[in-house]
Amino acid sequence: MQRIAVCVSGGGTNLQAIIDGIADGTIKNTEIAVVISNKKDAYALTRAMKAGLPALCESPKDYKDKDSFADAMAGIFKKYNIDLVVFAGYLVVVPDKLIKEYRNRIINIHPSLIPAHCGMGYYGLKVHESVLAAGNKVTGATVHFVDEEADHGPIILQKAVEVCEGDTPEVLQKRVMEQAEWNILPEAVNLIGEGKVYIEGNIAHIKQEA
Questions:
Q1: What span, in angstroms and rounded, lies between the C-alpha atoms of 210 and 201?
Q2: Which residues pair with 84 in a beta bridge?
Q3: Which residues are catalytic?
Q4: N or C: which end of the chain has fewer CB within 10 A?
């Protein structure tokens, strides 16, 4: 059984997609062991508690430096015997020390087709504002392994979403969540839990059924 930690900063709609995926059998061989937020008032923590899941607040602001925060997070992951860490709208610059310790065991969902509209400063509505300002006709979402660069690392899954005439950032954000994020994040968690994702070089591959 794959034990996951879900890290969130806001409302937790992607967390809810994972909770629902486990409940309906879309995600197999997986359980959420703990939900962690860097914000004590994040509604994602309420979602977790309603689902009967351990919910913790760990903010980097409460630690003297990045390494101390990394050690605290690693301690939580070890306490809960975490196999996979899922960043589901987690707006924290993750210390390199933690990434190194959990290499290829941390995944992230980003609301664009990486490598477009990503990197430092691209989060939330800012991503969709950038897409609209560029005049893109297609956007989407990406699930990838986390490395030392923001919104970088081997890509596991991507799903394209149409940009429609007259879209606002808010309307586009909602469409990307509904059509892409809430589908490919649970799918990626399931694929990893089933042992179907492997990395060669810097490319993630998905094992095909025989």
A1: 23
A2: 4
A3: 110
A4: C
Per DSSP bridges, beta strands 2-8 and 84-87 are: parallel
Structure tokens at 57: 């607040």
What's the mean pLDDT in 58-87?
95
Q: Judging by DSSP bridges, how do beta strands 106-110 and 84-87 pair with one another?
A: parallel
Q: In Å, what is the CA distance from 117 to each residue of 56, 107, 123, 133, 156?
A: 31, 18, 9, 11, 18
Share of the chain above pLDDT 90, in %: 84
Task: Give the residue from 40, 59, 56, 39 showing the smallest Cα distance to 48.
Answer: 56
How far from each other are the two terminal CA atoms of the chain, in whole angstroms? 23
d(CA 122, CA 102): 24
Q: Per-residue pLDDT tens for 133-156?
A: 999 999 999 999 998 877 678 999
In the chain the beta strands, taken as DSSP E runs, fall at 2-8, 30-37, 55-57, 84-87, 106-110, 138-145, 155-162, 197-200, 203-206
Strand (E) or helix (H) holding 43: helix 43-50
> 12-62: per-residue pLDDT in tens?
999 999 999 999 999 999 999 999 999 999 999 999 999 999 999 999 999
What amino acid is encoded at 69 in this protein?
F
Q: Report the distance separating Cα 174 and Cα 152, nearest Å.
A: 23
The amino acid that residue 68 corresponds to is: S
Closest to 196 in 3D by CA, of 184, 207, 183, 180: 207
d(CA 21, CA 18): 5
